[in-house]
Amino acid sequence: MIEVNFDGIVGPTHNYAGLSIGNRASAANAGGISRPRVAALQGVGKMRRLMTLGLRQGVFLPHVRPHVAWLRELGFDGGDSEVLAAAWSADRALVANAMSASAMWTANAGTVSPASDTADGLCHITPANLSTMPHRASEAEQTERQLRLAFADRRFFRVHRPVPAAFGDEGAANFMRLASPSGRCAIEMFVYGEGRAGGFPARQHRTASEAVARGHGLDPAHTPMVRQSDAAIAAGAFHNDVVAVANGHVLFAHEHAFADPAGLREAVHALMPDAVIIEVPADRVSLDTAIRTYLFNSQLVTMPDGDMALILPAEARENDHVWTWLTELVARETPIRRLEVVDVRESMRNGGGPACLRLRVQVDADALAAIDPRFLLDDVTCDRIEAVIAREWPESIAPDDLGDSRLWERCATARGALTAALGFGPGEI
Q: Dmax of the chain from CA atoms?
């Protein structure tokens, strides 16, 4: 299979409103001055880096922001500028939610099961409802629209409706897939939380995970439901991908990622004896350090030569405990042989590293050819995207700027310029 990483382009409204409860980076930088242009260019730079490594890359576009339609549903009337001005006067937090650029975290866009795992032999995709947080709960409709455009060919893909909002689903950020090198066995693991830990809500409901697995036609015997540890949630691991990542036959996780790590190891090896589980011990890298550096929010990828590489944020390179352990890891006889460092500092400040920015889709050559090419990247398309960002994206956004009508207009114009540059018609996406 061919893996395509679909990254979210950081939108022009990227700001530090601190809306994500339980996300330590988001909370720590709340009220700061963001740099949307730099953030978006860093994101495109990461995509280019993966392409130079021989990996396939796609994109999803920023959502319509400010989200005036959402504010209208909350009772604000009039033209767009009147709605926004009235909302800003009544409750500034509502405008902050309507300006959120959090759709850039495409790991939360949905859950993807490749055709080799499903009963009908189609690639199944379920958009996440993201119902736990107000600033994200409004994303599902626009995300679903993009998924249905990109994966419209029903010979290869089936895009589902989101799970009902009563059951929180946060997509691939709480999902891991292992596949045997032989190709004869795969495990799709859904990671869920329960209740509240450390005052933070568990965002992924087990019922939602089970619903996605049923809808995708997965074999229950190869679809374990794994509980996230309360300690990880309380420490700020608001999604599982902050403390664990999987690729191929390798599971790379912190010692305290899961509620029952011994049971998970036993279950994985019973299903896939050749699975490799690499566990980072807490006495080498504390849970706090792992979350602060986003060590596990790295992308674990298979290179064209068959070796695996970790695509790490610069913060992991800058921490002595993390980097020492990683250099020891690549020196050992494990499938992870390379460390590649990328700078996505602006998105990290808002609570997401390299893995948060991407959604994996695994397809064969025929299915790849059926994906809408406007969502696939090459160097020319990257040039086009970067030119629009450099010309149209705001240089900075301070908290009080969110109430400025000139910013609203500029952000709407910027998104329109990007969609046009990529060949999308007015109102198509």
A: 64
